[in-house]
Amino acid sequence: MLEDAILMIAYYIVRNPDIRGLAESFTDMRKAHRQELFRMFSDDQRLQLYECCRKIKHFPKLIVSVFRYSTIERQIGILDQYQMDIEVCMACYSRLYSVWNKELEIWGVLPVFERTSGCA
User: What highest taxon heads this organism's lineage (predicted)?
Assistant: First the structure.
C-alpha cells in the first residue's frame, strides 16, 4: 500500500520516464483511469516497478503521517530503501470519542515545547 502510493507519485506527479516506460510496457495506462495499481499489474510487475522507484534520485520530499493502527504502520521500514528526502510523522497523542461506546479514549501525552523565539 505504501509502495503503491510512492509508485503513483512517481508515475503521475514526478512523471519519471523510467517508471512510465516500464508501466506502459506492462499495460495500456490510458485505460488506467481510476483503477487501483494493485489490480492493474501482476505481483512480479509491481515488484519491478517498486524496484525502479527505489532508484529514482530526483524525487520530491515526502511527508508521511502514520496514524495509530494504520495499515502502513508496519510498512514504514521499507522507506529506508528509497532515496528521497522524507519525514515520517507518528502519533504521540490522540483523544477520540466513541459514539458506540459513549466513551472518550485518550492515548499518549501531548509534548511540551519550550518557546525559543517567535511571536509573543
Answer: Bacteria
